[in-house]
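Thread: "does anyone have the structure for this chain?"

Original post by V.I.:
We have the sequence but no experimental structure in hand. Need at least a predicted one for the grant figures.
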Amino acid sequence: MNKPLTIVTPTYNRAEYLPRLYRSLVAQTCQDFEWLVVDDGSTDSTPALCERLCAEGLIDVRCIRKENHGKHTALNAGIAATSSALMFIVDSDDYLLPDAVRRTLDTWSLFGNDRLSGICFLRGISESVPLGQRFPRNEEIASYIDMRFNQGVSGDKAEVYRTDILKRFPFPEFEGERFLAEDAVWAQIGLRYKMVHINEIVYISNYLPGGLTRGDNSINVRSPNGSVESVRWFLSKQVRLRVRVPMAWRYIAYGLFARRRLSGLIKASGAPMLVLTQFPVGLALYLFWTRKFADQLRSHRFVSVNDEAASHAFSGGKTHLSAQRSEKRHLHAKPE
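Reply from O.Q.:
Generated one for you, tokens below.
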């Protein structure tokens, strides 16, 4: 019989930290869940650890092992392998508080319906201190777009999504790119569905040294196609103009790093006038990042570390795929 909730943990070389998450799951006051660990090609003792945890039989554990292609590809594998109604992504160096599963199931029992994509709880740096801001109102029904960008609530949160919706919105994958910010999917869902927001910390985050964030522009420009996908949804008119304009700058800059034509960027944006009018600023941002991250770009064998992509945007040339990836929500890629 399927459990109502699957906790999915994508991991890469985090054998040192997985036991703490495991202990927090064993300690859950409600055990009506499955833990699915997706090993993204770890080279440490993660595979042996997963076998041992499965053999202990203290909770329902399942492990999948795949080649290393980045966290978003591990999430796609986990989503495809999940049959529970709800899915909770928990990073391998983080852990849950004892009532997290119970609060998830109780909240969904109370609020769940076809118009909601899931639940958004708080993450914390401790049981009493939230990561970022609390929501303006407890139990508020709002979209990801509205809460996080229009209202400006900051900080990573603990999202629980309906599995059927996640299966309809897989994370896009691009050859050679190992990073994709989760916004690429959360924003798409947020344009169509709302969530219930609960001002309760259920998830404790541990930001490790060397962890990378979606705000790390050097990473974003090395995975330009994924970065284009991550920001283009924020060009929608559902998003406030003060957010849409800087997103358009990023969209253009990432598109140039991805060697996309301007005509293609305009057509795919859904906001042609915004992209066209903001192109000069986007081009300037591209040139600034090209110089700022020149060493990183050379080391990742980019075709150009000058303004070649800018001229390519007007040349009618072919679009090329290239790059790398990451976000704190961890770097699962192999070091280069």
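V.I.: this helps a lot. The beta strands are 5-11, 33-39, 61-65, 86-89, 95-96, 116-124, 140-142, 157-162, 194-204.
O.Q.: and The chain has two domains: 5-204, 217-315.
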